[in-house]
């Protein structure tokens, strides 16, 4: 085993000591630790798992395919298919009481076991992507090499850059993001290979390459949009020796603040995946099931994410908090906050950032951001306001009686953190969400193609037919 120094000033004796230590880790010492035997790449790791996964699914369907796993009520049919068990999503499962688990691991567990950047405190998005795709926790070296691979694939085509430049500043950043991702279809290896004719067993490999290329280019695309709309249009180049979160933060213009860089890493991890039923995940999966490329599939998912009932919600939360701050000023008493909450509810509005379609407790993603804020910005006025709302809102919403979950979700916190570090343009926040969500939906797209998932085609009926089925007269 040999150690290769990443920082200057380390003595030969220390290098020798580190090289002999089985407990050596890169994030604690500033070293990269290399094995004499080259570890498997992400693609090789995933490829090795495919045969067993296919056999597992075949066996499950053969032995238990006729068993009923749930019921569908008429309320669910007309209520947006809420809670109907009908999708397969390997990367994460959302429990109403426990919250999200990524491949069986909670957010705190992921924060503990996933590799971190040198000197960083939060897990790297590269590690989560590896976990979501393979179910395995990657090594330090595997994550560093994945960082380098994404950096090497990050260059965007000139025509895509020009396309973004030609968008008017008044066009919403999410619309620009979707346009740019769609335009990358021109580079799709899957689309080109499919047009020539390929074996179905090869679908996943081309989907993998497209997904890797797409993820690698998203920080530059997202940053180009941000710098065009809100700044001077200049975007820093990707630094080949840095991780994904650092490059995104740096290209946005915040690379000099190590806390913001760490926030980006945390943000990308916790927003990546939330099982398959949400609009962006389901849409990406649905469009991909027609064998559309990862570019077209993700663009469709981004268009869903742009809706105010989905990814745009964090923008609405920040706007609402800003209005509250103007109304209450420095008076953060229980009485003042309660009065404002009731005025919101009595006006027919909802309290943004509270409640969730599945969760019935405080969102663990909210808690991870709260813990970050308690460490980094405990005295920030907006964080204090968020904290007081967190203390008061559940009681008010419970008394109001129309919210099944009176606790905060992820959107209730993220905007305040971004604003604290100077990224104040709320209309842009969903683009960051989109970069993160790609890390969660594209692994499932690769898995879908690897196991031969079919095109999705549920059955629909008219209202009259449903009435007939339940014995009702209209």
UniProtKB/TrEMBL annotation:
InterPro entries: Citrate_synth-like_lrg_a-sub, Citrate_synth-like_sm_a-sub, Citrate_synthase, Citrate_synthase_AS, Citrate_synthase_euk, Citrate_synthase_sf. Pfam families: Citrate_synt (PF00285). Keywords: Acyltransferase, Transferase. One of its GO terms (molecular function) is citrate synthase activity. Belongs to the citrate synthase family. PANTHER family: CITRATE SYNTHASE, CITRATE SYNTHASE, MITOCHONDRIAL. This is Citrate synthase. It comes from Discina gigas.
